[in-house]
Amino acid sequence: MVVSSAQYAYANDCSGVLTHISNVIKHNSYTCPGCCEEMVAVKGKVNVHHFRHNNATCSYESYLHNAAKNAFYNRFNESTDLIVLMLERAITCQSKKKSFLNDDSISCTNLVEAKYNLRNLFNEAFLELYDKSTGFTPDVMLSNSDNGSKCYIEVFVTHECSEEKIASGIPIIEISVNDENDIKYIQESDFSINDINISLYNFSAKEKSVQECHQNCSLISNKFETWTLSASGRLNKLVKSFNHLSEEELSLNNCWPDNLDNSTKTEKIINLVKEMDPENIYSNCLKCINASGWDDGQVSCAIKHTSVPYTESKACKHYKVVEA
């Protein structure tokens, strides 16, 4: 596409630094990032301020491509701010707590953000430098002079990164550029694996194993009930997420998964009541020979043929404790 009258927002100053029209300095000379021809700053009172080619015409795609790679190169060399690359790291929980879920097939591996500063990884940036080790000339090459590591920055306007370049194994950040808003994005924003403008190749954050639940624990949906007996003999239930319980809490007889079937849960609660009140100080329908089940505070009564509150034993003439 050839554009002869487009209103360009960026141009290179006499030092080769990409400059937005809002930062133009009077009497300075400017050239087009795409064709390198002279550009004129137009700052009238009617039209939007812009750069205009003096004589030449220019490919808008070429302008975007060159402006974008200059934007990244200038940002790396001229600014001291963080240049954040956000990857994803797999965290696998090896906590012994998982054994209390009674399911050997359950695993906890989750993806969490892994934040890197490109300035800490690389200390040099080169614009269109031939890499003799791979035979490629990236738009921008980042390198670390201390350990020899490299990263290619590629701008995608009309041509995506080639399969051959990806196969080189060099980490590549490909930035999709459609208009001048994407140039501003390159100048100011973090680069994230989840950004639609970004494609990452040959990057991987080192996996981690942890011995304790982390804040992104994928087992958080598992709930556990913890039961206690109050001074009045009433049962109290507290429901907690798996990652908020300690290994010690999970190992106690008064704690179990809330998704247990009613039969198993009834057995556990009956045993717990006997354990917490061995002298039978408190009346509780769960101890009665006529009780046959438990459902959220209700006990199935064989005499009354219905479910009754477990505390009804206090006034029930049929209440009889099962002999040990």
Short characterization:
The chain is an alpha+beta fold and 324 residues long. The chain has helices at residues 60-78, 118-121, 163-167, 180-188, 247-251, 262-276, and strands at residues 2-3, 10-12, 18-20, 30-31, 38-42, 50-53, 58-59, 84-93, 109-117, 124-127, 140-143, 150-156, 172-176, 191-192, 198-201, 208-210, 223-229, 235-241, 255-257, 291-295, 298-301, 306-309.
Feature tags:
disordered N terminus; single chain; four-stranded mixed β-sheet; 324 residues; five-stranded mixed β-sheet; 6 helices; 3 domains; elongated; alpha+beta
Overall description:
This protein is an alpha+beta fold. The protein folds into 3 domains: 2-78, no CATH class; 84-210, no CATH class; 223-315, no CATH class. 18% of the residues lie in helices and 31% in strands. The chain has 6 helices and 22 strands. The chain has helices at residues 60-78, 118-121, 163-167, 180-188, 247-251, 262-276; strands at 2-3, 10-12, 18-20, 30-31, 38-42, 50-53, 58-59, 84-93, 109-117, 124-127, 140-143, 150-156, 172-176, 191-192, 198-201, 208-210, 223-229, 235-241, 255-257, 291-295, 298-301, 306-309. The strands form 7 sheets. The protein has a 5-stranded mixed sheet, with helices on one face. Strands 8, 9, 14 and 16 form a 4-stranded mixed sheet that branches. A 3-stranded antiparallel sheet has the order 4-5-6, with no helix packed on it. A hairpin with a 2-residue loop joins strand 20 and strand 21 (298-301). Helix 1 runs parallel beside helix 4. The radius of gyration is 34 Å and the shape is elongated. Mean pLDDT is 88; it is low at 1-5.
